[in-house]
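[job 0412] stage=fold_complex status=start
inputs:
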Amino acid sequence: MSDTQILIDGNGTLTRAEALAALRAADEAARAARRDALKLCQTNEERCKVLSYCIACSLAYTSALHKSLKSTGPLFERQAKDLKVAASEVERKSKQLERAADAVKLLAETVKLASSLSKAFA
Amino acid sequence: MKINCLPPKSRRSILRDLVIVLLAASALSGCATVRIDTAGHLGDAGHQTAEALAETLFLSDSFLDQAADLDTFVFYYEAGGEIPVELEAQRKELFDSYKKNHDEFKHRRQVFADLGITYQQFADLADKGTELETAAAVDRLGSAVNKYAESLGKKAVFSGSARKALPQLGWLAAAELKKKRIKQASVLIRERLIAFAALLNDPLVKEEILGFQQRMSGLEGDRLQVLWDAGLFDPSPLLDQLGTGTGLQAAVNVGEVLRKDKPLSDSLGKVIESRLRRKLETIAENYHASLKTLEELIREHEALEKDGPLNLTRLISIAEEQRRGSKVLGGDRKEAAK
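[job 0412] stage=fold_complex status=done
writing structure:
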């Protein structure tokens, strides 16, 4: 099952291992952005939002890992590829953050992508 | 039995049978010249290797607990005040998922425990001739490998009992029978090692095991850095290490110096960051070293079966090297072998 590939678009395929690695990369990117994002937060509400998005990214990975370990059937979505690009993008952008709002927005985008891919493991 | 008392025909028949048995035994001993003491050593080395593999590939309970404690500490510190109920619930869900994944890995660790038991039995077979126990251990290992394969959606690799495969040739001389059984047991174990190495080479298994270890070590590193930034750690041991080669020691007031000099403190923070990065690289290196150890073990079995020389010193040194690597990665993982 692990080497099963499914078509995600006209040009390529993605294995479960690659999808899981993409989720982990998104989680790592969110974690890397977390410290700097928190430094920019002025209010408790902002801080909680950043933490919440980071946990959501982690949960997307750990839940997918658990489902993978439980070997449920995989379904892959187009967003998986976007997520790989997004993970490196998050890391790049996190170095240029200036406002807490940017940080929150960036993490929210990561969560959105991570949750769409994690559905593939449902 | 007094052969001379028997009628000549029976005597001839018995002598003929005896010659046949001796010829057969001598022919078989040619196929089974495996050295019993060498097999015993391979059993011991295999047992050590199985323990080293378990320690290297899986996180211990204590490591996970420590990472969770660190995460809790840093989470509340970073949240900086009242935490909404939903956020607390989300955090709990994440912690539960760490635990669930860790428990799943514990099931997989069973294969290594079974591998260790099999080698113990293999060593006993060489020492005392305990073929039934060896067959049972080989069966247990085969069944654990099968479960692992099934969890990956692959077909079960082994069927049937090893008991049937181990020779029951009662008329052979005891030593020859033992050698033949050792050889056959070696073949059975080797076949299971090959199947197991193939599973560990599976890209998904690699990502699951390696990814989780790297993720949890990365988390530990992130949290340690937050606490470092908060000035909670004494930098003296790290500075002592940096000065070891030249006999230099950290100054008594080093903490105070660093607190006053941010660039200096940040630079030391970079050393910590680089060490943590190396730690993550070591995890990947250890995984690949584990695969190499398995390959080495398979080669030793082949050598044993072909009556060739064994290089167990090399195997044991690879296993010890692996153990040292896993200790560098965060404390004692001996627990992982349990």
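[job 0412] summary: The first helix of chain B runs from residue 8 to 31.
[job 0412] exit 0
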